Amino acid sequence: MKYSLALAFIFLLIGNIKSQVNIKDHKIVYSSELRNLGFEPASPIIKLSYSVKKFVTGRDGIQFSVLVSPEKNMPIVNMDSILFTSTDYKFLTINKPYFDTTEYLINMNISYNAVHWLDENAIRFLQNENVLEITFFVNQKAIPIKLNKKSQADLKRFSKSSF
Fold first, then answer.
1. Cβ neighbours of residue 44 under 8 Å, at least 6 residues apart?
2. Which residues contact 138 (CB under 8 A, 6 or more apart)?
3. C-beta separation of 66 from 111 below 8 A
4. Model-level pTM greater than 0.85?
5. Which of 10, 12, 108, 109 is most buried (CB neighbours < 10 A)?
6. Could you read off the pLDDT of 86-136 as tens digits, one per residue?
7. In sequence order, what are the beta bridge partners of 110?
8. Where is pLDDT greater, at 5 or 135?
9. Cβ(65)–Cβ(48) below 8 Å
């Protein structure tokens, strides 16, 4: 009994370690845990999360995870281009993700994940601006997701401390 519990714990630990490093070409030095963004309902997106990635090469990145609810014709989220709009209507577009995955979950939801490398201008934008909307493209149609005030402040504060 004692050995089976220890063995189960080791497999759990190995599974968590393996799932943290999902980019094969470059090693991740730092990966924050996923932080949820609060937003006004934007069908079919039911959950939006982000995390910061730091690579051995010295580059910074941001990962977005979008959870989509099941529908008759499952929506396809294009993670290639993500548009940020600030409260004073400045725009930032990050495109060409370095890494992306699609996972089909047991409860029939689909999770789309993408890691984008950020340049200095993008980092400065996230640190200095209050992001009002994040726009994703679902089924080739723009879906703006309006962040609530708490999530705007959290994203700005987290960007200042993480990049």
1. 68, 69, 71, 75, 138
2. 44, 45, 68, 75, 76, 77, 78
3. yes
4. no
5. 109
6. 999 999 999 878 877 787 777 778 888 989 989 999 999 999 999 999 998
7. 68, 104
8. 135
9. yes
Asked if residue 37 lies in contact with residue 45, where contact means CB atoms within 8 angstroms, the answer is: no
Q: How far apart are the C-alpha atoms of 150 and 52, rounded to whole Å? A: 19
User: Which among 125, 124, 143 is positioned nearest to 134, based on CA atoms?
Assistant: 143
Q: Select from 161, 158, 91, 162 the least CA-distant residue to 131.
A: 91
Cα 86 to its chain centre, rounded Å, is 18
Output the 3-class SS for the chain. CHHHHHHHHHHHHHHHHHHHCCCCCCCEEEECCCEECCECCECCEEEEEEEEEEECCCCEEEEEEEEECCCCCCCCEEEEEEEEEECCCCEEEEECCCEEEEEECCCCCEEEEEEEEECHHHHHHHHHCCEEEEEEEECCEEEEEEECHHHHHHHHHHHHHHC
**Tokens 């999770």 sit on residue:** 111
